[in-house]
Amino acid sequence: MTMQTLLRRHGVVLGLLALVLVLPLVLPSNFYFRIATLTFIFALAVLGLNLVMGYAGQVSLGHGGFFGIGAYAVAVGPTHFGIPVWAALPLGALLAGLLAFLIGRPILKLKGHYLAVATLGMGILIAMVFTNEAQYTGGPDGMSVPRLVLFGWSARGPITWYWISGISLVVAAWLAMNLIDSPTGRAFRAIHDSEPASGVLGVNVARYKLIAFVLSAVFAAVAGAYLALYDGGVTPRTAEFLRSIEFVTMAVLGGLGSVIGSVVGAAFLTILPQVLTVFHDYEHVVLGLLIILFMMFLRDGIVPTLARLIFRRRS
Amino acid sequence: MSLLSVRDIGIEFGGVTALSGVSLDVRPAEIFAIIGPNGAGKTTLFNVISGLYVPKHGRVELNGEDVTRFPVHRLSELGLSRTFQNLQIFFRMTAAENVMVGRHLHEKRSVLPHLFALPSTKKQNAQTRTKAEELLAFVGLKGISEQTAGNLPYGALKRLEIARALAAEPKVLLLDEPAAGCNAVETAEIDEIIQKIAARGIAVVLVEHDMRLVMKISHRIHVLESGRTLAEGPAQEVRRNQKVIAAYLGKHAGEEATHA
Question: Which of B151, B167, B183 is the last residue of a domain?
Answer without folding.
Answer: B167
